[in-house]
Amino acid sequence: MNDQPRQTDPAIPTGNNESTELDLHDQVIYETPEPFEDIASGPRWFYLFSVVALVVGAFYLGRHMGNLDTEAHIGFLQAQKQQSGQGGAAAVKTVSGAAVFTSRCVSCHQANGQGIPGAFPPLVKSTYVLGDPQTLVRIVLQGLQGEIKVEGQAYNGLMPPWQDQLSDEETTAVINYIRTELGGNQAGQVDVELVQKIRAAEKDRQKPWTVPELEALEKS
Amino acid sequence: MTIQQGQVDVKQEDNSQYLNKASAMEMETYDQSGRQPVLLGFLIAVIWLLIGTVLGDLSSFKFDHPDLLSGQAYLTFGRIRPAHLNAMVYGWASTAMFSVSLWLMPRLCRTRLRWGRVASCGILVWTAGLIVGLVLLLQGYSDGLEWLELDRMWADPLLVVGAAMVGASVWRTLAARNVHHLYVSVWYVAASYPWFLIIFLAGNLPFYRGVESAAVNWFYAHNALGLWLTAVNLALIYYLLPKIIGRPIYSYWLSLVGFWALALFYALNGMHHLIGGPIPSWMIATSITASIMMVIPVIAVGINQHMTVVGRFGAMRYSPALTLAVIAAMSYTAVSLQGIMTALVSVNRITHFTHWTIAHSHLGLYMFVTLSLFGGMYYILPRVLKREWPSRRLIRLHILLTGGGMALYIIALGIGGVLQGLSLLTPGTGFEASVASTKPWLMLRSISAVIISVGHLAFIYHSYLLAFSRKHSTTQLPPFIEFKPVLVKERKS
Amino acid sequence: MLMGALATVIFALVILVILPSSLLSHVEAPPQLKRPSQQELLGRQIYISNGCIYCHTQQVRDAEITADVSSGLGNRASVPADYVYDAPNLLGTMRTGPDLFNVGVRLPDSNWHLLHLYQPRALVPWSIMPAFPFLFEHKPKAEKGDKVLKVPAAYAPKQGVVVITPEAAALVAYLTSLRHDYPIPDSPAFKESQP
């Protein structure tokens, strides 16, 4: 209803902008005119840019959207193929036993291999580590459960099987690391063939080993 | 008012339908019509700011000293952190935004605020809901979704009713408007209330499960930022910039593009929080595309606001409200461009799951939203209270500490986040490396958190002085405006 | 204007909430994914109420674009079918701590989790995870039926014992139940849901 500016409204000074020329009441200094929009249409390049953006967006969506279903992880496969090739190669290149140990074993056995007294057995000076390599390979591949006595102390825990998570090379590297490097341990190296052999022989085993089982196998 | 009639340019006569001319006296009537809810909202908001600051600081310190105050369940990090987010988003920002909307609408609609009492009650109901929700959250009753932790049984209904009551007042005022042309700020404010209610209700429905729950979670959380926090604060900035420097907004058409492109694209953005995750690929692709499309409204708003202020940046020296509005406007552009970049798969694979996200959200929620609200309070409170801010020094201190502190915060966590992300992308390094790479930056973040907190204390003390100390006369000129305003400058066209 | 503004947000709601809702309702749990037990659900609730989600994700991302699989978080990326029993989702957005999607495979030992919850630094010296001593009870002497947690001397209370509460036991039961190492379910339901 008040579309028309009222006659009493203050005019908006134009032209020379120097405010020194304005003799205004305090209150007006305080309360400048209400904002409004100019009718400039804005730079042309912006509209061109918007159209380009829409086209790019449409192409992006078309390329990556895939089907309208519940399948996950399909959209970016084609686009990233080249990159992943390099990444995969880098992962297989060298296997460091120390790195595997750091990322998989230290949460329980600790970085120094001493374990947590009463909770997780030490690897340093442990007869299970330094003794028959077959036993150690079995423990690493299929895990260990139940009572075990190490360095005169009893433990009762559950070590996870690593056969689904570590390759033969990684398993060999980490076993050699704990047998020959960790905390002054000095025992013989283990070949990758032994790991392969035990993995093949026990591939159907569902449960972790127990100490009596391992001892029985060692004796036989 | 007795004002000398100046010459009226012919060109401006043509534009007269766009000119909203009003006398200072008239504005005062509008301001006073909403005095009660506006002041109530700001008072509550400032209290939440203080609470949220304490919670945020505590969360930050817990990264450096994980055993700090870990004995009590309600002080554990996993409860303090969401409490910080909720206190800041729903307590500080939203409540201050209620006041901002209730102050803007009468001015822009040229009418008294309608249903002001309903709005006041709405603010109180909202606050009650938030208190209930936060107490339950600290006791361990959480809905388990980020941004939606508040209990859906006891807290959320109160929040919905509260926001709806404030929204009713906004819309009633809009319906009673005395203007034909709606200024751009009105679009944002008016639209934000129904938007918020729709997304908040949709986000809180209890029957989503599995990955769908994640999709709804991020649909809500992203839109709470885009369609609620961003909308009202853009409205405020759109008002403050031309108002303070006395020049019209550069382009009506850009405002139009900015608004509608935001409404269309922002609402589709949410799934970029789940890139690489187990939700259907087409959803993620849609959200990435919509995120890229956000470049249109962001550039439109950026050009529009920049061209409005350009050549008048010097006026920032005299007006803290303008200073903060300009920083906030620039931060909006910055945070949006950063967000678009982060939504790209090649960047996201590094920054996802890292502190980069936290830096990004603080660029948005602090440098943009909070600074714009501070600017609004510097402008609005003297007009509603009819009393000026007492101390120029406290204002400078506040702007310097909060702006500088947050810049440090964002840089520190941004760097820390990228280092963390690169470490997480390198197989075989172990998790320790990613923790170690962030530790110094988290420490720096805690330092910046302290700086920001001091800034907040200065602001809160200053607000107290303004509101409750009787020393300052009502006639005193604003301490920062020793100047004469730069009134409308004719654009050569 | 109101109609237009509502239309945009409802359009987004349809695309990102309602459409996926109908698509995902066809997804069925893989046979190897167990329905969580009562205790595990209680543990999940404790996971939620203590905000574990703010530092831990439960998702393995696409192996093509991330190192999630090659750094051992799982043997494959996670898919919607892995989450059918989850409400609310706990996918998470931060990896301040490691991913927990397969934590039950990596760390099946309950004692490890209990001690780690009581004091993470007893097991992981560089950890910045908060300790959760309030999930345990300090008692001068273990009573009948109490399960006592063995804590290394450096972190043990000066006197008395640390007793495991049902809450801590439930949380650990939940964590060790997080095992998603079965092969990707290629259920025909996925294909059916295509338009």
Notes on the protein architecture:
The complex is a heterotrimer of chains A (220), B (493) and C (195). Chain A has 220 residues and is mostly helical. Chain A is 46% helix and 6% strand. Chain A has a domain at 97-219: Cytochrome c-like domain (Cytochrome Bc1 Complex, Chain D, domain 2). Chain A has a two-stranded antiparallel ribbon. The radius of gyration of chain A is 36 Å and the shape is elongated. Chain B is mainly α. Chain B has two domains: 33-180, Four Helix Bundle (Hemerythrin (Met), subunit A) (Up-down Bundle), CATH 1.20.120; 223-476, Cytochrome c oxidase-like, subunit I domain (Cytochrome C Oxidase, Chain A). Chain B is 72% helix and 0% strand. In chain B, helix 3 (35-64) runs parallel beside helix 5 and helix 6 (156-175) runs antiparallel to helix 7. Chain C is mostly helical and 195 residues long. Chain C folds into two domains: 1-30, no CATH class; 32-184, Cytochrome c-like domain (Cytochrome Bc1 Complex, Chain D, domain 2). Chain C is 35% helix and 5% strand. Mean pLDDT of chain C is 89; it is low at 187-195. Chains in contact: A-B, A-C, B-C.
**Proportion of β residues of chain B?**
under 5%
Q: How many helices of chain B?
A: 16
What is the alpha-carbon Rg of chain B in Å? 23 Å
By CATH reckoning, the class of the domain at 97-219 in chain A would read: Mainly Alpha
Residue runs with pLDDT of under 50 for 5 or more positions of chain A: 1-27, 77-92
* Separation, N- and C-terminal Cα atoms of chain B: 32 Å
How far do the termini of chain A sit from each other? 103 Å
Strand content of chain A: 5-15%
Backbone shape of chain B: globular
Tell me the number of structural domains of chain B: 2
Compile the SSE list and pairings.
The complex is a heterotrimer of chains A (220), B (493) and C (195).
Chain A lengths: L25 H5 L13 H21 L12 H17 L3 H13 L17 H4 L2 H10 L1 E7 L2 E7 L8 H13 L11 H10 L9 H9 L1
Helix pairs in contact in A: 4-7, 6-8, 7-8
Chain B lengths: L9 H5 L9 H10 L1 H30 L12 H33 L6 H24 L16 H20 L8 H21 L5 H36 L6 H15 L14 H13 L1 H15 L10 H24 L1 H7 L3 H31 L6 H33 L5 H39 L25
Helix pairs in contact in B: 3-4, 3-5, 3-14, 3-16, 4-5, 4-6, 4-8, 4-14, 5-6, 6-7, 7-8, 8-12, 8-14, 9-11, 10-12, 11-12, 12-14, 14-15, 15-16
Chain C lengths: L1 H23 L13 H12 L53 H4 L3 H9 L1 H4 L12 E4 L8 E2 L11 E4 L1 H11 L11 H5 L3
Antiparallel strand pairs in C: 1-3, 2-3
Helix pairs in contact in C: 2-6, 4-6
